[in-house]
Amino acid sequence: MQPTTRKHDVVDGFAMADPITAPRTSVSGFLLDALRRRRSGRALLSSLTTLLFIAGAGMFTYPFFTDVYTEQLVQRQLEDQFVRIEVDTFDEWEATIEGETGAPVTKIVIPKLGVETLVVEGTSPAALRAGAGHYPNTPLPGQVGNVAIAGHRTTYGRPFNRLDELSPGDEIWLVTPVGDYLYTLPSGSTLGWSSNPYVTHPKDWSVIAPTPAVASVTLTTCHPKGSARERLIVRATLAESHAAGYYDANVAA
């Protein structure tokens, strides 16, 4: 006859759990139970819960506050500086920018995406808090060569958030103190690319290499959204050159 399986034995009047069937307590569970039994432990748990809640809320609201910071503070200050720039030639303009990281360079307007933001000199994290930055040692808008601009896709105004929605034929305006310049996207095959926009790895510096025979602008941003694993690239070539003030008087109006 098989012995009856017992859930408990009784020893000295107390029911003893069968070690085979008794639930096991993890180390973390044991520590939590120990903390809950002490007043100081309960206070510590309460503080940790509050800190975790604040950290989670901070992560959730961080993009929103960086956008407000860039759009309401940084961009307004840059606009005030930009309208006060008085230069007549590229040489004079370049002299006001050279070595001045964070100085306003150009206003970039992408009508299809509703983008209108001031681009500053430099691509350091501090400079890019303005939203977009001009790669040093690349030409200025309107000049022959490859004007290269990096911009945030998320946070800090995210001016390049929807860059992947551009397609050949779309327009990019670069508004400057010495002239206003319209660039349009050619097809990827014209550039020798698979498409335009296209995705490449983050160390592909060839995208901002000089284009000696063509006046172009190259925009770079992170891909996919929220990740720096790859880079999304857009290139446009110069289609029209106008005197300073043309865009505001004839296009924006």
Shape: globular
Tell me, rounded to a whole number, the average pLDDT: 83
Main beta sheet: 8 strands, mixed, barrel
> Which structural class do the helices and strands define?
alpha+beta
Order of helices and strands: EEHHHEEEEEEHEEEH
Share of residues in strands: 25-35%
Helix content: 25-40%
The main sheet orders its strands as: 3-4-5-6-10-11-8-7
The counted number of beta strands is 11
List low-pLDDT spans: 5-20
Distance between the termini: 99 Å
What's this, in brief?
This protein has 253 residues and is an alpha+beta fold. 29% of the residues lie in helices and 26% in strands. Helix 1 packs across helix 2 (39-83).
Q: Could you describe the 3D structure shown?
A:
The chain has 253 residues and is of the alpha+beta class. The chain is 29% helix and 26% strand. The protein has five helices and eleven strands, in the order ββαααββββββαβββα. The strands form two sheets. The protein has an eight-stranded mixed β-barrel. Strands 1-2 form a two-stranded antiparallel ribbon. β10 and β11 form a beta hairpin. The longest helix has 45 residues, at 39-83. The protein is globular and about 75 Å long.
Q: What features would you highlight for this structure?
A:
253 residues, alpha+beta, eight-stranded mixed β-barrel, two-stranded antiparallel sheet, 5 helices, 11 strands
What topology emerges from the helices and strands here?
Elements: E1 8-11, E2 14-17, H1 27-36, H2 39-83, H3 90-97, E3 104-110, E4 115-121, E5 132-134, E6 145-151, E7 171-175, E8 180-184, H4 188-191, E9 198-200, E10 215-223, E11 230-242, H5 246-252
Parallel strand pairs: 4-5, 6-10
Antiparallel strand pairs: 1-2, 3-4, 3-7, 5-6, 7-8, 8-11, 9-11, 10-11
Helix pairs in contact: 1-2
